[in-house]
Amino acid sequence: MPLDTLPHRGRRECKASQTGLTRQRIGAAKTLAAGEASREPSLAAALKQHTRDAHKRAETSGIIRQLVRRQASRAGYITYLANLHPVYLALERRFVGLTRHPPFDIIAHPALHRQHAVENDLDALASNSWRSRGALQPATRAYIRRIDNADEAQLAAHAYVRYLGDLNGGAIIKRLLRDSLELAEAELMFYEFGGIADRAAFCDQFRAALDSLPSRYDAERILDEALVGFRLATEQSIEVEASTVTIA
Questions:
Q1: Residue 174: count of CB within 10 angstroms of its CB
Q2: What is the percent of the chain where pLDDT is above 90?
Q3: pLDDT tens, residue by residue, 10-34
Q4: Domains of the chain, first to last
Q5: What is the rounded radius of gyration, in angstroms, for the C-alpha atoms of the chain?
């Protein structure tokens, strides 16, 4: 979940990943151009610039806004997780085989994968009923189709949108959910990354891996797909908020 602009309140999280959507592609282009001039192009910095505005919309819309304001219901949160699950399933299926090779060995590292963590939380929150109850939102189906048809450059963009957001905002959202919905630790495994000992150090590795992508892929393609990823995540969040589907 793209929420790294929330205050960390003493927790050592990633501080310099994605932040929202862009002022304009020109800002990202300037960032890349400056990097190229020093022969060290920073795609990570360009992504942050390019997606600034979209990221801001994502974290102030729909069910995410409700979570941050402590206004989400238990049923709404379950619906959100039930719609996130197939997105991670689709993304992580696409990463099978890629994780053996740089830079996907970092940006799609198995320790980042959220499919099983989301399943764990849904089972704890709603037993097995979530698997058969509640329709996926149209935006969720569109999100899945986009991932299913993405090339490697585009998959890297989706990894950026989803995983850095999870790492950055996870601890904050976990605390908000624990306080507002009184969720137990067993219901909050989505926000745990047991295979990553130092999140800040791992985020540095993640950004370095992103910066290596332009040597293999079209940077503009990655930048544009990151915008698509944030748009789809926002549309999904809005539809979940508006949904009347009750799973629990």
A1: 17
A2: 75
A3: 344 454 433 333 444 555 655 555 5
A4: 25-242 (1.20.910.10)
A5: 17
